[in-house]
Specification:
The chain is of the alpha/beta class and 321 residues long. Helices cover 31% and strands 21% of the residues. The chain is built from 9 helices and 13 strands. The strands form 2 sheets. A 9-stranded mixed beta sheet has the order 5-4-1-8-9-10-11-12-13, sandwiched between helices. Strands 3-2-6-7 form a 4-stranded mixed beta sheet.
């Protein structure tokens, strides 16, 4: 078993309102509000952090394993993942509960009214990494039920399994002690610029302390690329130019998938970061977190249009997970 991805599994329900919310909201009546918006378009997309990362990993030749909980409406999603070389053996279905869902209604000014249904994700705390039949080389602990995330941190430490700590959206929901435990013991930490500052605030750890405590720290910076710190030594990686920005949702997950594939192949972290930047660009050019597609040959060709890999990416055409 190579890499295990823990984290949310969800559906995204995206709706379009053909007007402006401001025309239907009276600020002086918000203490007693009942609003209904008739939308003219809705799509359901596959989402969730763990499957999103897994999808890009699989495009690049990995066979990742997703470890988490989903609801009774998950079967078509499972078939999709398995058809894309993603192992769903350890996705537990919770009877009588729906898969976690994100609902977003967007108006003509790109304002959004959103809600999130935790659903089956709340049961992730009942799963244990001890269920795995073989020892993984790496575990990714990404946004999930906070109790589950804390459990997986402790289990990785007890089982001496290197883990990637990716708290991102759950930094605000996790208590400071949980976050400190996650950071202190991680082999790698992935955050964006804002999350990097927020993590320091919530843990009380300084940036310098984290950089000297966690061997590999990756901070994504949007259009500015990413900063990669290996034992506190920094490498800057630029963003890859995109043909057209369509949807930023899931771009960070695609970056992680590209980076982790390079890491699994034993490539240096600068190339890993550039693989992440390219994977992020593919995602940014499509709507949805699992809508981008490329062959390994396409990926290598586009990589070489921007970067010099010294021929190292050729191993992706020969080596499988």
């Amino acid at each position: 078993m190579s890499i295990v991805l823990t984290g949310s599994i969800a559906y995204d329900y995206l709706m379009t309102f053909p007007g402006y919310f401001k025309d239907h909201i009276m600020p002086d009546r918000l203490d007693s509000i009942s609003l209904s918006f008739l939308v003219d378009h809705m799509v359901r997309q596959r989402g969730g952090i763990a499957p999103n990362i897994a999808y890009t990993l699989a495009l690049l030749g990995e066979k990742p394993l997703v470890f988490g909980t989903a609801g009774e409406d998950f079967e078509d999603y499972r078939q999709w993942l398995e058809s894309h070389n993603i192992d769903t053996t350890y996705i537990r279905i919770i009877p009588g509960v729906f898969t976690a869902s994100f609902f977003a209604n967007t108006d003509l000014a790109n304002n959004q009214i959103c809600s999130f249904y935790t659903g089956a994700m709340a049961f992730a705390r009942e799963l244990s990494l001890e269920m795995l039949q073989s020892r993984p080389e790496m575990v990714v602990i990404s946004p999930n039920d906070p109790v589950a995330m804390d459990r997986y941190v402790e289990e990785c430490k007890q089982m001496q399994i290197p883990y990637v700590y990716d708290p991102s959206q759950q930094i605000a929901r996790s208590n400071p002690e949980e976050l400190r435990r996650g950071v202190d013991g991680a082999y790698s930490l992935f955050v964006n610029e804002y999350e990097w500052e927020l993590l320091q605030k919530h843990t009380g750890f300084s940036g310098d302390f984290i950089l000297h405590r966690v061997p590999l720290v990756v901070i994504t910076r949007g259009a500015k690329g990413a900063s990669i710190y290996w034992r506190a030594n920094e490498v800057e990686v630029p963003a890859v130019p995109v043909e057209k920005i369509v949807d930023p949702t899931g771009v960070g997950d695609a970056f992680r998938g590209g980076f982790l594939r390079g890491w699994r192949l034993g490539l240096d972290f600068e190339i890993c970061g550039k693989m992440g930047s390219l994977a992020a660009a593919y995602c940014l050019e499509q709507r949805g977190t699992q809508s981008h597609y490329f062959t390994i040959e396409d990926f290598i060709m586009r990589f070489r249009a921007h970067f010099d890999d010294g021929g190292k990416l050729e191993m992706m055409t020969q080596k499988t997970a």
